[in-house]
Every structure is written in C-alpha cells, then in structure tokens.
Amino acid sequence: MIRFTLDQRREKAAIRPPGYFEDVLALATVQGEVLTLDQEAYEKLTAKYRGSGATPPPEEPTAAELAANFSSALARWSAAGFPVVSREIYTARAAVCACCEFWDAAARFGLGKCRHKKCGCTKMKRWLATESCPLGKWRD
Ligand code: SF4
Q1: Under 8 Å CB-to-CB from 59, ≥6 apart: which residues?
Q2: What percentage of the chain carries pLDDT values higher than 70?
Q3: Whether the predicted model's global pTM rises above the 0.70 cut
Q4: Bridge partners, 2 (sequence order)
Q5: Are residues 41 and 93 in the same domain?
Q6: Number of domains observed in the structure of the chain
Q7: Are residues 33 and 78 both part of a single domain?
Q8: How far is the C-alpha of 128 from the C-alpha of 69, rounded, in Å?
Q9: Residues 100-114 pLDDT 10s
Q10: Which residue has its alpha carbon closest to ligand 1 atom 1?
Q11: Looking at ligand 1, which residue's alpha carbon is closest to its atom 7?
C-alpha cells in the first residue's frame, strides 16, 4: 500500500495534465486527509502520467552508474563501521523521499527506487548513517 496526503497529490496535480487529481481520487481510498493506493493502482497512475507533466522524467542511472553508486555507498558504510540510523531518522528520511519527484515507491517489488542519476538506491539506503540524499533533501 502506498500512502499520500491529499495536499501532496494536489501539489503533484499542479504539474500534471488536467484529470490527474480526479484519477487519483478514483483509484484511491480516502480517509480524512490520507489517500491509500494499492500497488496496481499506483502503477496504473505512474504509467499514465510519468513524463506527462511540465517536469521531464528524471534521467535514471545506467547499470554501470548504479553499480558504482552502490559500491561507493558500501565502501563508505564499511569504512565507518556499518553504522545505522534510529527508526525516527529513518522515518523522517522516508517522509522526504515520499514527496520527492525522483522517488518511485512501487519499483523493485515494493523496495522502491530513487531515480536520481547519483543514487538509484532502494529504501534500505535510508538506514545507512553514512548516506545522504544526492539533492541534499536529507542528511541525518
Ligand atoms: S534520496 Fe533524495 S533524490 Fe532520492 S528520492 Fe529521496 S529525497 Fe528524492
């Protein structure tokens, strides 16, 4: 299940073609200010609207770049002694990613994927104390 607030989807609707917000409401379960989409509905919306708004789709890392990014992250984490963050920090990082145009929550069987060229990581990256968002949206 993927959850958003109504305000988050309204913000997204501002850069999407007409009909986006209505499609979200038609596919989601709404409870108060929270929208819940199942995986299938989320993928349907993503397929229909990705790249259709004013913002061009992000350029994703190539396989070689992804491998290099992953190796660098592992090297940093290993050199620091494998430190992880607290659940509070993890949750705060996750909240930032959830609102980010680069985050694809449905990718990799629910592990998600940051589509930024300098990242490409899943949500597991947020546990690593040595990692940060490539755009500086979160650090610790
Ligand atoms: S790591 Fe940064 S760029 Fe990637 S999805 Fe999260 S907030 Fe966005």
Answers
A1: 117
A2: 94
A3: no
A4: 37
A5: no
A6: 2
A7: no
A8: 14
A9: 888 998 888 889 999
A10: 133
A11: 97
